Every structure is written in structure tokens, then in C-alpha cells.
Amino acid sequence: MFKVKKKHSVFYLCQTIKYNMGNFFKFLFSKSFFVQLVLALIVTVVLVIGAMQWLKNSTNHGEFVEVPDLSKMSISEMRSVVEKAKLRYEVLDSANYNPDYPRFSIIDQNPPAGNKVKENRKLYITVNPSGYQKVSIPNIIQVTQRNASAMLKAVGLEVERVSYIDKLGKDMVYEIKYKGKSISPGDKLPKTSKIELVCGNGNIAGDIPVETDSQ
Predict the structure, then answer these.
(1) What are phi and psi of 98, to 5 degrees?
(2) By the 8 A CB rule, do 108 and 102 touch?
(3) Which domain covers residue 35, as residue numbers?
(4) Which of 65, 79, 118, 201 is the most buried (most CB within 10 A)?
């Protein structure tokens, strides 16, 4: 009795598998399966293309441009060139005036010209100021001419000439002049300005002042 039931169960299972396999192969070659397969492929292709386009737009993958040479350009000229190259920029002020470049022109850029960068990269632009930075005149009154010259040079000023007056302190600075006018310690002048030192000649009052050029 048990063997008969077992054989019957195996037979039934085989028939079921055969039936299901037949239906499966029938479905594989059916129009419905073909339509669903085509739709699935279309959806997959659309998703892949969309993902690639998003990646391209968000990272500009594989698109590089050459950084233009902006040296000595005005800000308006620079802006036009940078925008045409599909780049961005940020202007940085410079505290150091460069006489070899026009005022308010480009004196430096980062990244440098010729570099390959991605589109929309930001360039950092340094602009030449309108003139030399102003510095304070150090207190050189009653300082020796030699030390006074060194102190002025340290802040970027130059001694154009030295004149002498009747004062007992020989080579001691008693007055500072700029373009013929008396100025005081703490006054501000542009760097590289040339000034005059008025020093004592060691003579008593009443002697004739002696004027010499500094060496």
C-alpha cells in the first residue's frame, strides 16, 4: 500500500514539473514575454543614459579647458576672457604695487596660464593696486644719519639727499622733508618715496650751512 502511494506521488510530481516547464517554455516564446523584455530593455537603457548625463553635467567628466593668460589685462578684459573659457574667478587685492604692470591690471593668477582644468573651475586673480602702499615715517629725529637711513630703508623709503644746518649734533637728524616741505614722524608716505634729511653740521649758530648729496 505504501509503495503504491509513493509511486503515485512521484508520478504526480513529474507530471506537475513537466506541465510547469511546458508553460514556462511556452511563455518564453510568447508575445507577452517578448513585449515585457523589450520594455525592460528600454527602461534599462533610459536609466543608464540618464545616469551618465547627470554624471556628466554634475562633474563635467572628461571636459577640460586651458587656463588663459590674463597677465596685464584689465578687470573687464579678464572677465570677458574667463567667461568665454567657461571658468569662474575671484578677485584678490594685492598690497604690493608692481610698477611693471598697469594699475588695476592682473599681476598674478592661480592656477597659472596653460594649466588644464575642468569647466567651471574658479580662478584666483590678483590685481595691481593704484600705487605703492603707504608707510609711516619712523621717529628718526635726533638719530644719526646712518641709523636714520637704515630705518627709512627698512620701511621702504629712500633718502634722496642730506642737507646740513648749524647744530652741534654732527650728522644728527633734526628735520625731515618731503618735496621741500617739513614732515613729522608718523606721517604716511607711499613706499619708495624719496625724502630729505636735515642734519646738524657740528657748527655753532651763525656759520654758513653746508649742503651735500647723500652717497
Answers:
(1) -115, 110
(2) no
(3) 2-59
(4) 201
